[in-house]
Design goal:
alpha+beta, Diaminopimelate Epimerase, Chain A, domain 1, 2 domains, about 40% strand, globular
């Protein structure tokens, strides 16, 4: 008997939109520590991230892999994992999904907007122009930059308007050379009902552009909550697939809500 694996589109309620993630509920505890096997599976799934989870006495151990690397935090694949736990009856729908991860304890719960993820806030420290990292102008171009910041994992660049974010043509080799996990571009939204828009690029991890990035909103939430003076925000990630998120900032936590839909269920024989 093989290993069941799923593909879930996160931050959407429409198949073939949002951000696809693989989900593997591991039955053999040895597999959750077998990094070579998980990397091979993630490479075969060829999603930006595949989540691997194993049930323990106090929740689930959860790890995320791109086709090339393990990552320490991933929002859309966490949402996908929780969605599968409830869909498959592994966890009752009224029960929170509790995950132990490389970024500490994460919680997913059902709410009126779909699934709410409770993640750590990762505020960006604003960088003065002399502190801007080498290669930033090559990576982002000469367009005006309202602000540049650095979070635990990523660089954040606010551009002058929504059109500048939507029209940005990435220079993937230059972005890959930046000293960060990924590059977040953002601007205040002019399209209703959104407060801000963003895009996320992580070519060094094998992700030229991520369709919808939950973990980036751990940076974007605190940033725009302070800029706009409001703790609850409507966000749109303006990739080709696109996705909508509701973001709530409370102290050192960020609550990210969205929907998910299963598009594939298969048996992994390897």
């Amino acid at each position: 008997m093989g290993q069941t694996i799923f593909q879930v589109d996160s931050f959407t309620d429409t198949p073939f939109h949002g951000n696809p993630a693989g989900v593997c509920v591991v039955r053999d505890e040895k597999k959750i520590t077998d990094e070579k096997w998980m990397l091979k599976v993630a490479n075969e799934m060829n999603c930006s991230e595949t989540s691997f989870l194993f049930q323990e006495s106090k929740g689930f151990r959860l790890r995320w892999f791109t086709p090339q690397h393990e990552v320490d935090l991933c929002g859309h694949a966490t949402l996908a994992a929780a969605h599968i736990l409830w869909q498959e009856g592994i966890l009752p729908e009224k029960e929170d999904a509790v995950f132990q991860t490389n970024s500490g304890k994460l919680i997913a719960r059902k709410n009126k907007r779909g699934v709410e993820l409770e993640f750590p806030a990762l505020p960006a420290r604003t960088l003065s122009k002399p502190e801007w990292p080498a290669g930033l102008t090559e990576a982002v171009g000469s367009r005006p930059k309202v602000a540049v910041g650095r979070s635990k994992f990523d660089l954040l660049v606010e551009l002058e308007n929504e059109a500048a974010v939507r029209d940005f043509a990435p220079n993937s080799p230059a972005i890959a050379r930046l000293d960060c996990r990924g590059l977040i571009l953002t601007a205040q939204a002019t399209s209703r009902p959104y407060d801000f828009v963003s895009r996320f690029f992580a070519p060094a991890l094998g992700i030229p552009e991520d369709p919808v990035t939950g973990s980036a909103h751990c940076v974007l939430g605190p940033y725009w909550a302070e800029r706009l003076g409001k703790p609850e925000l409507a966000a749109y990630q303006a990739s080709e697939r696109g996705g909508s998120l509701h973001v709530r900032v409370q102290a050192d936590r960020v609550f990210i809500s969205g929907n998910a839909v299963t598009v594939l269920r298969c048996e992994l024989l390897g």
